[in-house]
Amino acid sequence: MSAVEHNGHVHQIREIAYDDQADMDRVADLHIELLGFGPMAGLGRRFVRDACYANNMRDGQLKVAVYEIDGVIGGFVAYTDRSISFHRTSLKKHWLRTAFTLIRSLIEDPRRIVALVRALAVLGSRRTEHGIVGNDPMGEVVCIAVQKEYLKTEYRLPSGPRPGESLIAYAAHRLTELGVHEMRMLVDADNKAVLFLYRALGARFENYQQAGEPMIQVWFELPLEKQGLEIPWA
Predict the structure, then answer these.
(1) 226: closest CA among 179, 177, 172?
(2) How far is Cα 198 from Cα 157, in angstroms, rounded to an integer?
(3) Could you tell me the pTM of the whole model?
(4) Would you state the pLDDT for residue 159?
């Protein structure tokens, strides 16, 4: 993937592989640091890296791209064109590997059983979506995170987007190439700042319950170029 230089900084988005240990470790670290409020983060770094990401990436159900500034990974996006089925399919195909990772996580810290109960509730709620929310292929940004320092104006590209917006546009572009026409995200209902941003990017909102928690289902019509959001290296 080509890089873009602007304002003294070199920007690049690139896909990573599940067997690249350094990249996977960095993504897991960012997930724990920036998305630690989520149900899977409570099960620990190893579980996030291996069960949440690597298992799904191994089969191509999930793709992860990182945003680098001056060669340093400052953010990432995880996306899929199998929004409805990839959780269920992953558990079915990789149950032994997932169980082993989970046991190690609980041995390291038995208090993680609380996080496990929460994670199972979330997975259970996702299993009910088939035929109700829609059917695959359906695009979803499963996770997105950017370090706060890279949200500063100095890291805005000439065309306008900051790293977070560029990662959304990147995922949308790749999903469009796969023939997907809609992309969704699940956002906490009280995350007003993020919801305001997504509204500005042309998203539509629907109320959603995930394991009893109020969420907003954020929908983007693809391609995102319809809303004027582009990335210069797509």
Answers:
(1) 172
(2) 18
(3) 0.94
(4) 67
